Input
Amino acid sequence: GINAEYMGTELDVWQYIYLEGIPIPDLYFSKEREVVEYMGTKIMVDDERMPQQLRKTAKKEMVRFRTLGCYPLTGAVNSEASTLPEIIQEMLVCTTSERQGRLIDSDGDASMEKKKQEGYF
Output
């Protein structure tokens, strides 16, 4: 099992998934998806919840998700990584956090960490 005291880095998690052959959702792999730019984050056009005005600005881009959460609070990142080895290679040269794709973390006073401290999670 996973040691709760040491969850490791994002790279550690991807290497563990690869070595153990753990299946993961397709959203973690890059493919062409319709996305809109919203508050500096790429949000996938997934269904009718996307406001029409914003949906009109959608473009097809090669993206994947580094983190998954509630729609539409989780943003995609541009990527060509469509296999686990490619994701691991991408992590070796990546300089940004997976948390950059979470709109909930960009609202300053109401960050994810503050929400955790307040008992929302």
Observations:
- Residues 65 and 72 are 12 Å apart (CA to CA).
- The mean pLDDT is 80.
- The beta strands are 31-38, 41-44, 59-64, 77-78.
- The chain is about 25% helix and 15% strand.
